[in-house]
């Protein structure tokens, strides 16, 4: 990260990792550079990252494993998108605390309960930024 940061590559790498892998990357980064990765990214990214996406990136990097309850998680995701504007921080925390398999189950259950694709709903509620 720094002058000439490849922000697209940063997104591609971080979004492919689950929360355990992100924690391992943060620990390795600190061991190598004696600097917190989250703070470094927040200091070095700008432009497109200045508002909602920068906040979402920080939430993603700080996400921790959370208890998994399929029905409760589906309801929590719907609640984060219902009403006047989406609660993008809550939605990001919910998604980032799940494994790929858990998200697959959540997407299927969401469709079963509400008759719409979760990713389509997220895109419509967030302008496509979070999906």
How would you explain this protein's 3D organization?
The protein has 131 residues and is an all-alpha fold. Helices cover 68% and strands 0% of the residues. The protein contains 8 helices and no strands. Helix 4 runs parallel beside helix 6 (88-96), helix 5 (70-81) runs antiparallel to helix 6 and helix 5 crosses helix 7 (100-114). The radius of gyration is 16 Å and the shape is globular. The two termini are 24 Å apart.
Topology:
Elements: H1 7-16, H2 19-33, H3 37-44, H4 52-62, H5 70-81, H6 88-96, H7 100-114, H8 118-126
The SSE string, one letter per element, is: HHHHHHHH
Mean pLDDT: 81
| Percentage of residues in DSSP E strands | under 5%
Task: Give the terminus-to-terminus CA distance.
Answer: 24 Å
The number of helices is: 8
- How would you sum up the global shape? globular
C-alpha Rg (nearest Å):
16 Å
- The secondary structure category is mainly alpha
Largest sheet: none
Helical proportion, percent range: 55-70%
Q: Segments where pLDDT lies below 50 for 5+ residues?
A: none
Instruction: Let me know the number of strands.
Output: 0
Would you kindly provide a brief summary of this structure?
The chain has 131 residues and is mostly helical. It has helices at 7-16, 19-33, 37-44, 52-62, 70-81, 88-96, 100-114, 118-126. The protein is built from eight helices and no strands.
Provide key terms for this protein.
131 residues; mainly alpha; globular
